[in-house]
């Protein structure tokens, strides 16, 4: 009978992931639908429980019996029911140890590390006073029993002082750790955000937005608890346990050793359990991120979902992720149950030992009643401290296990573009040259997008890129913006290699209106001035809006330029015109207009034509303009039309010449005319 395995991988097909290239097959084509980088492809039991797997039980005869036996074997420690991780996951687990995670957080605290040091100071004081209490308590009770009033009063006073010291220092300890936690979560998010924002484009092609926001939100929150709760609780309980052991050893070493033996059995059980919990926590976090991505995708495409009536299907998709989550959590809970069972059994065992050994020692006169009372009290402390230590270590392991992805992301160095200081020219003229440029996207190395492309654009020239969908027009623009680096050849701006220029300076001098028709959730004015670093007056903003044919509709908005933009407020064409105004405000030497097909209604077409005309006969400084055009009628006025097909330039010239050529351009114009007339 096949042993059912708990496999989450099959469900990842519901989301679009890119896997990281495997070392074994680097030339392998990467499928669009695969597991996320750190997501387990198949879940199985982590070490050290894996050692149980090789053990073969004799299978009893008879079908029913053997089935029952097989089922029983599955739920035993090491059985397939517990399988929740794969070998890739194990490697990842060991890669980021708990210590390196703690060290990274310590570094993040930087100048505020003193708060943690002060907190530890209070922690030591609190722990020392707390651990002295059982001894003083027992002594005060027995001095009262022996009618030693002065000794009793002294002990009672000492007890009151200890209570006060422990109360105050515990409060200060918690306060300091909470402040450290607040600082840590802020720094963690800042560090993670800056690690992400400076990554190159292939990184964002690989990673899902939902996953990244989940890392920044819930994962960082969870990690910060490590400092606030676990670390200081572990330190506190370790100190208390040491104090308890010292006290126990001074009372009776056979009794002390018996308690220590039980505590070490507890610690061993915990090592196995803790490792399992760490893995489970990481998987829980990954599955939760996938569930969040599914929700985000559904809600952001809610109009499509509604139009196609796929609400139930979407619900089912989310439910599948929840089921995966529940599967892991059930195993986690059962493991927790086993752990609690072992803990309470062993805890009670210490009491039985105390009664048996202590009772016998009293009867033989080796131990006094007072000593036995102190022993029982310290035994309670030790076992309680051991429980808290293992519990908090478990939670610490969970937090670090679940957030390994956060640490991996934190280690990413910024894209080279931001690291190197390039050349800044005195003035950008806008001459562009592509020399023998080839390119493929890093995620699809086997698919060439541009091949040995040569193109030269003169300063102040207006050129239009046309061609069938997927011919590489937008890719060419992306290379010019240095969003990607060519795999072969060189791009020159005013005769300087593009990669030698300062990328920030270059982008400040380029106006780009992309296909993404999304504006920022802020007012219209801020959307227009976005990314412009100089002082800008209202008149200038309105001027740019007028030239982008946007002033009229902006003025008609409820709060004019102060109107907050939200998703359904503006049409695609209106958003595009605001984006054009933004580009115009920068007075760029190079303007790139990548038309979004969806936004191009006949009204937009009229505006784009007007804008192009303005660039040709502009009143202000002229500039080089590259228009990626879908509506061919918009670019008839361009100085030159570049026709692309399959990543190559197949035709070049002005509208009239190209029509006479009877090549791809005239064919495309004909198709479009027929379509519009139909
Ligand atoms: N980030 C990416 N990762 C992998 N492949 C991509 C990426 N972006 C585009 N491609 C692929 O590159 C090819 C060229 O795309 P590109 O967007 O440059 O074409 P286009 O001519 O601008 O198309 P359209 O006119 O439809 O906008 C397409 O096959 C596309 O699937």
From TrEMBL:
InterPro entries: AAA+_ATPase, ABC1_TM_dom, ABC1_TM_sf, ABC_transporter-like_ATP-bd, ABC_transporter-like_CS, P-loop_NTPase, Type_1_exporter
Name under which the protein is recorded: ABC transporter B family member 26, chloroplastic
PANTHER family in UniProt: ABC TRANSPORTER B FAMILY, ATP-DEPENDENT PERMEASE MDL1, MITOCHONDRIAL
Keyword field contains Transmembrane helix: yes
Subcellular location: Membrane
Membrane topology, record value: Multi-pass membrane protein
CDD domains according to UniProt: ABC_6TM_TAP
Superkingdom of the source species: Eukaryota
UniProt keyword list: ATP-binding, Membrane, Nucleotide-binding, Transmembrane, Transmembrane helix
Predominant location: membrane
GO MF: ABC-type oligopeptide transporter activity; ATP binding; ATP hydrolysis activity
Organism of this sequence: Erythroxylum novogranatense
Residues that span the membrane, as ranges: 253-273
Gene3D superfamilies: ABC transporter type 1, transmembrane domain, P-loop containing nucleotide triphosphate hydrolases
ABC transmembrane type-1 domain span: 118-398
Ranges in coiled-coil conformation: none
Assigned GO CC terms: membrane
């Amino acid at each position: 009978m096949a042993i059912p395995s708990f496999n989450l991988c099959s469900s990842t097909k519901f989301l679009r992931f890119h896997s990281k290239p495997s070392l074994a097959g680097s030339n392998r084509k990467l499928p669009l639908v695969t597991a996320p980088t750190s997501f387990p492809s198949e879940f199985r039991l982590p070490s050290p429980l894996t050692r149980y797997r090789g053990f073969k039980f004799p299978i009893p005869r008879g079908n029913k019996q053997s089935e029952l036996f097989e089922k029983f074997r599955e739920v035993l420690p090491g059985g397939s029911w517990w399988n929740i991780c794969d070998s890739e996951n194990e490697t990842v687990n060991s890669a980021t140890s708990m210590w390196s995670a703690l060290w990274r957080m310590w570094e993040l605290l930087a100048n505020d590390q003193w708060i943690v040091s002060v907190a530890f100071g209070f922690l030591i004081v609190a722990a020392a006073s707390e651990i002295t209490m059982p001894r003083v308590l027992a002594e005060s009770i027995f001095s009262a029993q022996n009618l030693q009033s002065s000794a009793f009063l002294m002990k009672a006073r000492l007890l009151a002082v200890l209570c006060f010291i422990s109360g105050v220092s515990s409060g200060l300890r918690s306060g300091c750790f909470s402040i450290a936690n607040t600082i840590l979560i802020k720094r963690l998010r800042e560090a993670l955000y800056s690690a992400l924002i400076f990554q190159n484009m292939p990184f964002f092609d690989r990673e899902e937005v939902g996953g990244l926001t989940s890392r920044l939100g819930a994962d960082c929150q969870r990690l910060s608890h490590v400092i606030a709760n676990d670390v200081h609780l572990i330190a506190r309980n370790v100190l208390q346990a040491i104090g308890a052991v010292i006290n126990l050893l001074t009372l009776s070493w056979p009794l002390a050793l018996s308690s220590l033996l039980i505590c070490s059995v507890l610690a061993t059980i915990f090592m196995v359990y803790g490792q399992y919990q760490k893995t489970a926590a990481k998987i829980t976090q990954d599955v939760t991120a996938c569930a969040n991505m599914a929700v985000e995708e559904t809600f952001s495409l809610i109009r499509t979902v509604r139009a196609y009536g796929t609400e139930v299907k979407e619900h089912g998709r989310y439910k599948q992720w929840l089921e995966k989550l529940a599967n892991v959590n059930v195993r986690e809970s059962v493991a927790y149950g086993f752990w609690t069972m072992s803990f309470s059994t062993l805890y009670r065992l210490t009491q039985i030992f105390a009664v048996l050994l202590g009772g016998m020692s009293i009867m033989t006169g080796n131990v006094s009643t007072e000593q036995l009372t102190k022993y029982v009290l310290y035994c309670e402390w030790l076992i309680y401290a051991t429980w808290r230590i293992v519990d908090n270590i478990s939670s610490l392991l969970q937090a670090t296990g679940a957030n390994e992805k956060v640490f991996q992301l934190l280690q990413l160095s910024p894209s080279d573009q931001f690291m190197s200081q390039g050349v800044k020219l005195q003035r950008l003229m806008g001459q562009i040259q592509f020399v023998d440029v080839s390119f493929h996207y890093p995620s699809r190395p086997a698919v060439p997008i541009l091949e040995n492309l040569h193109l030269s654009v003169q300063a102040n020239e207006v050129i239009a890129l046309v061609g069938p969908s997927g011919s590489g027009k937008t890719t060419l623009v992306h290379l010019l913006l240095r969003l990607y680096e060519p795999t072969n050849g060189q791009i020159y701006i005013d005769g300087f290699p593009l990669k030698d220029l300062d990328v920030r300076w270059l982008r400040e001098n380029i106006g780009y209106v992309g296909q993404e028709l999304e504006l920022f959730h802020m007012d219209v004015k801020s959307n227009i001035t976005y990314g412009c670093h100089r002082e800008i007056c209202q008149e200038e903003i309105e001027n740019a809006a007028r030239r982008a044919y946007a002033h009229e509709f902006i003025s008609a908005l409820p709060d004019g330029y102060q109107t907050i933009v939200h998703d359904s407020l503006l049409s695609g064409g209106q958003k595009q015109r605001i984006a054009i105004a933004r580009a115009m405000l920068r007075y760029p030497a190079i303007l790139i207009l990548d038309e979004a097909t969806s936004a191009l209604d006949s009204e937009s077409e009229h505006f784009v034509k007007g804008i192009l005309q303005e660039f040709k006969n502009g009143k202000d400084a002229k500039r080089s303009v590259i228009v990626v055009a879908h509506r061919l009628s918009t670019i008839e006025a361009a100085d030159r039309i570049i026709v692309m097909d399959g990543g190559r330039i197949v035709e070049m010239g002005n509208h009239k010449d190209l029509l006479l050529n009877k090549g791809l351009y005239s064919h495309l114009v004909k198709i479009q005319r027929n379509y519009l007339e139909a």
